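User: My instructor asked us to take a sequence, write out its structure as tokens, and then describe one feature of it. I'm not sure where to start. Here is the sequence I was given:
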Amino acid sequence: MHTLWTLRSHGMDSELLQTVYRAVIIAKLLYASSARWGFTTASDRQRLEASLRRAQRSGLYSTDKPTLTQLAEDADNTQFHTVIYSGHHVLHSILPERTNYTCNLRSRTYNFKLSSQHDDRNFIHRMLFANYSDISNSF
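Assistant: Let's start with the prediction itself. The structure tokens for your sequence are:
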């Protein structure tokens, strides 16, 4: 942050400061978020979002940009699609086996066999059950 204030004091444009903030600070906050996000508590996430709100008040992060939670979820989705569709990805080998159901009663995002036990801290389990937790929370 000190470097950003130095850049601001030397007259850097606000839009460029926001670009630098996203490229440096947001990138550091999201580094390996797919692996770490499941281990964060609600208070951890609130502190991270609070740092983003401070940056918004300072003019370093635009209010129309996504929250850190949304950015982490987008990064998870991108990473998971890479794991699924790239057979050479290191995580591809730990995916559960695919199902071969011919009868589709309900549309599923992925055709993997789901176990009855899952851990939201585990990236693969979190992503496989992401749509199902949204469905079960709506009832």
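For the description part of your assignment, you could build on this observation: The first helix runs from residue 2 to 9. Try explaining in your own words what that tells you about the chain.
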